[in-house]
Amino acid sequence: MPTQKYQKGDKVMGRWPGSSLYYEVKVLGFDAKSRLYTVIYKDGTELELKEQDVMSLTGFQTRSRSRSRSPGRRRSRSRSPARSTRRSSSRTASTAITEIAPSSRRDSRFKDTLEVRLSPMATENNITDKLEKGEENNSASKQNEKSEAKVEKDPEKNQGRYNLRRRKDDGAVIPTEANSGLQEEEKTNVFAATTIPSAPLDFGGKMGAYFWLLFLPSWVLFVLLQVSQDDPSLANFPPTLPPLETFWDAQALGFVLLWILFQALLYIVPVGKLSEGMQLRSGKRLKYRTNGFFAIVVSAIVVAAAVHQGVDLTYIHNNFLQLATASLLISVLLSIYLYIRSCCAGPDQLALGGNSGSVVYDFFKGRELNPRIRDFDLKFFCEMRPGLIGWCLINFSMALAEMKQQDLDAPSYSMILVNLFQLLYVVDGLWNEEAILTTMDLMHDGFGFMLAFGDLVWVPFIYTLQAYYLVGHPNPLSLPLLTVIILLKLTGFYIFRKSNSEKNAFRRNPSDPKLSYLKTIPTATGKSLLVSGWWGMVRHPNYLGDLIMALAWSLPCGFSHLLPWHYMIYFIILLLHRDLRDTCECRKKYGSAWEEYCRTVRYRIIPRVY
Ligand code: NDP
User: Fold this and answer.
1) In this structure, which long-range contacts are made by residues 339-347, counting pairs with CB atoms below 8 Å and at least 24 apart in sequence?
2) How far apart are CA 254 and CA 259, in angstroms?
3) Of 338, 370, 331, which Cα lies nearest the Cα of 458?
4) Which segment of 172-186, 303-317, 516-530 scores lowest on mean pLDDT?
5) What is the whole-number distance in angstroms between the Cα of residue 440 and the centre of ligand 1?
6) 491 C-alpha to ligand 1 centroid (Å)
7) Which of 582, 590, 596, 597 has most ligand 1 atoms within 8 Å of its beta carbon, as the pocket-test mutant?
8) Beta strands of 89-204 (E only): which ranges?
9) Where are the domains of the chain?
10) How far apart are CA 239 and CA 489, in angstroms?
11) Which residues have C-beta within 8 Å of that of residue 384, sequence separation ≥ 6?
12) Which CATH class is domain 11-194?
């Protein structure tokens, strides 16, 4: 039996099935029985290739040179000005894609087909490789994946259909010489493909989007009504509905708007660092003013001055429902604005996950990745400022309300713990504001109702539930319990901060000498995965830390009611779902490297449990 010619890790040229095109690939394995090589392309696509479809780099170059003298090849090139642009950009980017003998028009069509088709595995973050190829194709296309299967079976039939070529950074797909002779129907398909294909739908798809759009606002209002009851137990479900006008107060809307404008003002003050975001599909990096810590300090000073001047902050407690309704209205209007403006955004500005074509789903999930008004980044601002700093302001007002309502000289221990714990969480987030630039929300999710509502309504009005609860439901703490809760919080915080910082530092500078002790797994995208340190313990150590902290936030409220545990329960569901979404994304992005990571680091969030 002949021996295996290429070994695991060897770089070779692999023929794309059904075509005459060769790409540089890495050998992942060889099955001696079927004589098939498993190879990985630069964009992460893995395929099994027949032995005769794999050749060495040197052998390929010799053969390619001799073929390039073919007159047929020259003729084919000279007819296509677009092709010459493409070729030169490919060369400068040292692309692996090379034709052996595309002497016919049919072959040149097929080349373009593959240029489009090879990208579906890539995602927003998987850009290094795409830049190398000079192709800014957006990806994760089910449509393309389906066509892939067809092409392999019957390449000729499918050549016209996806015969596309990207010309510029704008990501627009333009017809080329090769498709100029297509039938009308085929042309339609060409142009239909100018929209970015969307990733698989989350959150129950289109029907799910309807559900969440109705459910989330109703749930917030319901929970707020429930917690304001004397006995918010489940036995008293549902709470009595107050008259409709109770929900609305123009003054409350004015205060919320004032707060958002105040935070916007602090955001644009040219104080603090200008941090670079992760590289976008277009190859660009956006700049963000990361002055969140400055913003919370100034906000605290202004609030303290206002209280000193006699402003009664218990207004927030007394008008909580109205403030929540006002914020809800603002988040809906903002989402409508975001959806409308996303219709004018270029394809490379859209998030892969919010471009399904269903208005309701895309409105919910968010279409545009980084909507900006000049340099004002709407998503970053909403994620980090009004809601997050507002959360601390509300907690503080609840402490004042507790003192007033229970006639105390100082807030209770439980209230102090909840306030301090959550303040630490927010201040830490703002101090390390740059770290949010490597999170899923910033990198992958479009800005739509889901995030706008989450940032402006859910965070300030649901995350403050424990403090709200304690105003009317005191829960004295013994000293040992107090100590245990503090230790728990510190442990969670330590895990959360260290793991997030480790990944953030690694993503920002993988060759940082301070991180050289960490083991990594290389991936086909050029990025590596950490496989030791915190990220070698479980696959989401930051979620573990966050969950431990969540436990420490609920414990001061005791076990009399379920409501103060709302955050804990919701957060478990959120992080489990987030972990699933992220795993799915990473599997697509990193292919076998991700599988290897999962084999090495077996547990997702809790060591030896889950
Ligand atoms: P992560 O910060 O964990 O980001 C996930 C990304 O990290 C992956 O997509 C991947 O991106 C990268 N990654 C995964 N594994 C590795 C590895 N082994 N080595 C290197 N990079 C890896 O997730 P989130 O954005 O969901 O969460 C960020 C923080 O925010 C967490 O602490 C979370 O608990 C917290 N959070 C809090 C919420 C709250 O309401 N309190 C809500 C949501 C999150 P890539 O490879 O592309 O860089």
Assistant:
1) 339/363, 339/367, 339/448, 341/368, 341/371, 342/366, 342/367, 342/368, 342/371, 342/446, 345/371, 346/170, 346/171, 346/172, 347/138, 347/170, 347/171, 347/172, 347/194, 347/195, 347/196
2) 9
3) 331
4) 172-186
5) 6
6) 19
7) 582
8) 98-99, 165-166, 173-174
9) 11-194, 198-234+244-476, 477-610
10) 33
11) 292, 429, 430, 433, 436
12) mainly beta
- Ligand 1: which residue has its CA nearest to atom 30? 439
Q: How far apart are CA 352 and CA 446, in angstroms?
A: 8
Atom of ligand 1 nearest to the CA of 529: 19
Nearest-atom index, ligand 1, CA of 536:
18
CB burial of residue 428 (10 Å; 0-12, 13-18, 19+):
middle
pLDDT in tens, 289-319: 999 999 999 999 999 999 999 999 999 999 9
Q: How many beta carbons lie within 10 A of that of residue 486, not counting itself?
A: 14
Give the confidence band of 198 by pLDDT, cuts at 50, 70, 90.
low
Q: 576: part of which helix (H) or strand (E)?
A: helix 566-590
Reading phi first (left if > 0) and then psi (alpha if -120 to 50, else beta), residue 601 is in beta
Q: Measured between alpha carbons, how far is 93 from 85 in angstroms, rounded to an integer?
A: 12
CA distance 562 to 159: 60
3-state secondary structure of 50: strand
Cis peptide before 238 (omega within 30 of 0): yes
The closest of 489, 475, 486 to 558, measured between CA atoms, is 475
pLDDT winner (highest mean) among 14-23, 178-187, 599-608:
599-608
Q: Locate 411 and state its tokens.
A: 């807030």
Residue with CA at minimum distance from ligand 1 atom 21:
529
Least confident of 43-47, 302-306, 423-427, 553-557: 43-47
The amino acid at 149:
A
Give the length of the chain: 610
Q: How far is CA 310 from CA 303, 306, 307, 314, 316, in A?
A: 11, 7, 5, 11, 15
Q: Is 500 in the pocket of ligand 1 (CB under 6 A)?
A: yes
Q: Which letter does DSSP use for residue 345 in this model?
A: S
Of 493, 494, 533, nearest in space to 512 by CA: 533
Q: Which residue has the tokens 């004589």?
A: 35
Beta strands in 329-374 (DSSP E): 372-373
Q: Cα(517)–Cα(530) distance, rounded to whole angstroms?
A: 11
Residue 7, H or E segment: none
pTM reported for the whole predicted model: 0.69
Residue nearest to atom 13 of ligand 1 (CA): 529
- Ligand 1 centroid–CA 500 distance in Å is 8
Residues 291 and 272: beta-carbon distance below 8 Å: yes
Rounded to 5 degrees, what are φ and ψ at 17?
-55, 135
| Top mutation candidate among 440, 443, 457, 605 for ligand 1, by most atoms within 8 Å of CB | 440
Residue 195 has pLDDT above 90, yes or no: no
